[in-house]
Design a protein that fits this description.
Length: 409
């Protein structure tokens, strides 16, 4: 008899993006002439930068020659890339990360989803609300989330509401979680934590023996000086935090696939026998058993991002998206919307006007402006009454969308 993992059966059907597509398609059928601008895109759109493309071509040629061919690489990634990461991504912020604390992978989605493999099912987990759904669903799959109640919340998760009322800064929870997921700059709200605000969480985790899983996939979008790029900028974070980074949003690698996870050697958890166990070797063991490394050519492309030209080209693309975000944020504010995010992030989080629900706003925006975005309620209870617009369309379309916002009714 084939017995399935019951945890998977508990997962509700993913509804958000299928429902968005259904409503947009229905609208198109009824209004064939409407030119809809997609502001719901959660994926980068600009091409890979020339420095990375050149490195890709070169690496492909190496693979075509027996004398330079690469087969299986190290599961934790090639040292040529880990060394660049250790050299460029941290010391400039006063942080020292050793090469063997860096685990290169095929994505931050897989890493944030898989990290639970090395953590007991007995851990109590906290997530912000709204949230990147991967954190919740992977804990459901692991049997760590409890049961889904009538209000759409998992009985065993601690939810940390992030709304305009608290300035999108989660308050410390009443009961102590063992594991806390934080994502800053945030997807979906586009908001950030300052160094002082993040320090509150690091201090809390150190005091309570909790682990922070810090997702900084949008780190490259940070422009404000008081917003930390890494959780390790906060004193003590090496003892309580794992950091996830990705080349996806930084350098348009969503289709190439390359990311990395930092697990400091100081970081420990407790075994059921009460022994302190280092997390770094546990993750190495996990990766060596279940993962065979990101591809050689992709790691060469990632390495090229650290060259002078690569750095310059990456910054240009980020600046392009940030210019879109600024236009969108200012345009939406000018027509009277209450807007958040969009400064250190490609996401603009709009408070729906006139008490409209997220889905009511979706329909109204589609109908009066022919703009398609993402209802905030799809990211969690506290996303209700909010709406996500993204900066990943072209500048021209973004300006056109801003122009159309004046017609909103
Ligand atoms: C896009 C994104 C990532 C990156 O995922 P990859 O698997 O590296 O492409 C990670 N976390 C969040 C919150 C994201 O939005």
């Amino acid at each position: 008899m084939i017995k399935v993992n019951d945890n998977f059966c508990q997962l509700p059907a993913t509804y958000l993006f299928t429902e968005v597509a259904r409503r947009v398609n229905k609208y198109k059928e009824e209004h064939p002439d409407a030119e809809i601008i997609k502001m719901g895109i959660g994926d980068v759109t600009r091409p890979i930068c020339p420095a990375a493309v050149e490195a890709l071509h070169k690496a492909v040629d190496e693979m075509a020659d027996a004398s330079t061919f690469h087969g299986y690489g190290p599961e934790q990634g090639y040292s040529f890339l880990a060394e660049k990461i250790a050299q460029f991504d941290y010391p400039s912020r006063g942080i020292q990360i050793d090469v063997d604390e860096i685990f290169i992978s095929d994505g931050a989605k897989s890493d944030t989803g898989n990290i639970g493999d090395i953590l007991s099912v007995a851990n109590k987990v906290a997530v912000t609300d709204p949230v990147y759904p991967v954190y919740v669903d992977t804990n459901v799959m692991a049997g760590r989330a409890g049961v889904l109640d009538a209000s759409g919340k998992w009985s065993n998760l601690i939810y940390l509401p992030c709304t305009a009322e608290n300035g999108f800064v989660p308050a410390l929870p009443e009961s102590v979680p063992d594991v806390i997921y934080l994502c800053y700059p945030n997807n979906p709200t586009g908001t950030t934590l300052t160094r002082d605000q993040l320090k509150v969480w690091v201090d809390y985790a150190l005091k309570n023996g909790s682990l922070i899983l810090f997702d900084s996939a949008y780190e490259a979008f940070i422009t404000d000086a008081d917003v930390p790029h890494s959780i390790y900028e906060i004193e003590g974070a090496r003892e309580c935090a794992i950091e996830f980074r990705s080349f996806s949003k930084t350098a348009g690698f969503t289709g190439l696939r390359c990311a990395y996870t930092v697990i400091p050697k100081e970081l420990t958890g407790t075994s059921s026998e009460g022994k302190r166990v280092k997390l770094n070797p546990l993750w190495l063991r996990r990766q060596c058993t279940k993962f065979n490394g990101a591809s050689y050519i992709v790691q060469r492309a990632a390495e090229a991002l650290y060259s002078d030209e690569g750095q310059k080209q990456v910054k240009e693309t980020i600046a392009y998206y940030l210019r879109n975000a600024k236009a969108l944020r200012e345009g939406a504010a000018n027509v009277g919307f209450s807007v958040f995010g969009g400064v250190n992030s490609p996401y603009v989080w709009v408070h729906t006007p006139n008490g409209l629900s997220s889905w009511q706003f979706f329909d109204a925006l589609l109908d009066s402006c022919h703009i398609n975005g993402t209802p905030g309620s799809g990211f969690g209870k506290s996303g209700e009454g909010y709406f996500r617009l993204t900066a990943f369309n072209t500048y021209e379309n973004t300006l056109e969308a801003v122009h159309r916002l004046k017609n909103f009714k």
